[in-house]
Structures are given as structure tokens and as C-alpha cells.
Design goal:
single chain; 121 residues; mainly alpha; Serine Threonine Protein Phosphatase 5, Tetratricopeptide repeat; Tetratricopeptide repeat protein; TPR-like_helical_dom_sf
């Protein structure tokens, strides 16, 4: 697929911020991880065609926020990631299923299956 309108460059920037944020999380620097992952989500949200990349970033941000003990914020990011993944890839996608699985594991009381998925999209 050819790049148009700078989407490949934008996707690459979103991915790089996400990867660097995950490296910071792995090294225990949750503050840096959160900052980089928030930048990744915000950059991805600037263009409606980056739903999958933004879903990945929001999902990783949710994991970081959960690790930092900020459950409400983590739940918001999990929900954002699920909405983006469902809209672009569907409820049966590996991405949607992975996000839901980790959401349910991290915050079982908050991870409620999407009604749109329950009724078969």
C-alpha cells in the first residue's frame, strides 16, 4: 500500500513514541512511559485513519496507568482502545480480544463487554 498524505510518517511517529514508552515502562520509569504514551495517543488522534495505531497506544497507556495504580484513568484508556479497535478491526479481531483480556485481568470490575459486540456488531 502506498503512503498518502503523510500517513506512513505519522504512523511511524506514533509507533516510535509507543515503543519508547514501553521501553520506559519496562525499565520502571512510569512517568516517562506515561508521557511518551500520551503523546503517541494524542498524535494518533490527530488523524482519523490511524485507529489501529492509536488503539495500540491507548492500550499500552492503560497498562502503564494501571501499573501506576490509577485505575480510573486506566479504564478510560482501555475503553478508548476497545472502541478504536472495534471500529476498525471488529470485536473478533486479535487486537480487540487482547485488549479486552488485559482489561478484564487488570480491572475485572470495570471490563464490561461491549454491547455492540454481544449482539454481533
Amino acid at each position: 500500500m502506498a503512503c498518502t498524505g503523510g500517513k506512513c510518517l505519522l504512523t511511524s511517529k506514533v509507533r516510535k513514541l509507543r515503543e519508547t514508552g514501553m521501553e520506559a515502562m519496562a525499565s520502571g520509569d512510569l512517568g516517562q512511559a506515561e508521557s511518551l504514551l500520551r503523546q503517541s495517543v494524542e498524535l494518533g488522534e490527530t488523524d482519523g485513519g490511524l485507529d489501529v495505531a492509536t488503539a495500540h497506544s491507548a492500550y499500552r497507556l492503560a497498562l502503564t496507568l494501571h501499573e501506576a495504580g490509577r485505575g480510573d484513568e486506566a479504564a478510560q484508556q482501555f475503553e478508548k482502545a476497545l472502541t478504536l479497535a472495534r471500529g476498525r478491526a471488529g470485536c473478533g479481531s486479535k487486537l480487540y480480544q487482547k485488549i479486552m483480556e488485559h482489561f478484564a485481568k487488570a480491572l475485572p470490575g470495570r471490563a464490561v463487554p461491549d454491547l455492540a459486540c454481544a449482539v454481533g456488531e
